[in-house]
Design a protein that fits this description.
The chain folds into 3 domains: 237 residues, Reverse transcriptase/Diguanylate cyclase domain (Alpha-Beta Plaits, 2-Layer Sandwich); 96 residues, Dna Ligase, domain 1, CATH 3.30.1490; 51 residues, no CATH class. It is globular and about 75 Å long. The longest helix has 20 residues. The chain contains 18 helices and 14 strands. The protein is of the alpha+beta class. Helix 12 runs antiparallel to helix 13. The protein has a 5-stranded mixed beta sheet. The two termini are 48 Å apart. 38% of the residues lie in helices and 20% in strands. Strand 5 and strand 6 form a beta hairpin.
Amino acid sequence: MLACLRIPNFPWQVEVARKPELHDRSAIIAGKALDLGEELTNISGGPGQKTNSKSSKKTSASLSARVVLAASPDLTDVMPGMPLIEATSRHRGVLIIEADTPLYALVFDEIIENLERLVPDIEAAAPGLAYVGIWGLESLYGDDAHVVRLLAGAVDGFDLRIGVGDNKWLAYAASLLSRSNSGRKVTGEPGRFLDQFPVDSLPLPYQLIKRLHAFGLTTMGHIADIPRGPMEAQFGQAGGTAWDLANGIDHRPLMPKRSVLGVSEHLDFPDPTVSMATIVTAIESLLNRAYGRSQLSRRFARQASIQSQVFQHAPWTMRIAFKDPAGNKNQALFAIKSKLDMAVIPGPLEDMRITLSGITGEAGRQESMWKEVKRYTDLQETISQLRFRLRVAPPIYQVRELEPWSRIPERRYALVQMSSSGGEYTDATRDQVARRHPELPEAKKVG
């Protein structure tokens, strides 16, 4: 049994909490991407078309390239994912707010941290949306009703909706019918429960929702009445996903959030500023506070992230990956100032938040007197830094001998992806080598 915790219009609720004067205004929060549908259904779009850098920059800056992330409750005909140009054509003169995605992620992370103190299995699917495994909690907190009340009490200051179901989609659908800070549970036949749900509830791209309406498919029941084959033939893989969801089928497992240790500090400027001296002083003050926290006592940080609200402009973010883990304020400040000298600040900064992450317990490192060993150690450290900065395995390969005696050139050597743990190849590379050389023993390492 799963519970879905959904905060409707989460970006809007965060903006109102920050600026209460927005409560009675019609506004749209706009951004360049919408991840909610992908998080809910893991539907990936088709391959993107390649464009040159000039045209891509022009497109991303244009109004038509931006979409609606959230809107004030009075704009009932504005959907997340709708092109911004379409939304503004329906509501002339509506207030447009640039999405502050780092702030939304930070606020939601704090919510998840509060929930983790109560329940162990939590998946943060997207800002404002989380799934909780509530199996076995009845022995601690009582029945499902008590668990729902417990979860609602842990999220303070937001309009929370909770749904309970046998899978993620049914729990999400139940949350659509629940009232503020309460829960709804799916019982009985899923198909009967979903029959009258509008297709607008499906986590599908906005353009596909419009196509479904064009075909007269306006409810889940309409989709469930059609065989899966014709749905896939007409709408592709997303059509098959829509058919599964309309019938209450969802095989996605719960993927609990992996906690990442980080330290964050924040300050507000008395007046918006572009003075580099003031900005550097603020950074130094925040770093001093951060390294004074117990989480960084005798520990080091690999990365710093700076987020600021910019007066009458989109939020500004800068990320700095330290070449060597920074164990004190001065080391971190030196790296940040080096990056700051080349940064372009878009306008007056209203506030600043620094987050130190990649916390490690490394307290020292003994260098080798042998040049070859030192070069190899430096290479491993570089790969480790690239992995942390890129968030994927860096594309660094090493040529290794496989069968140097072979008469076939392709069998003599192989490219082996290096890792920061010791230069051994990854599972993906091992599979590639195994497919090319099935005669190799499974446990054999190249080189």
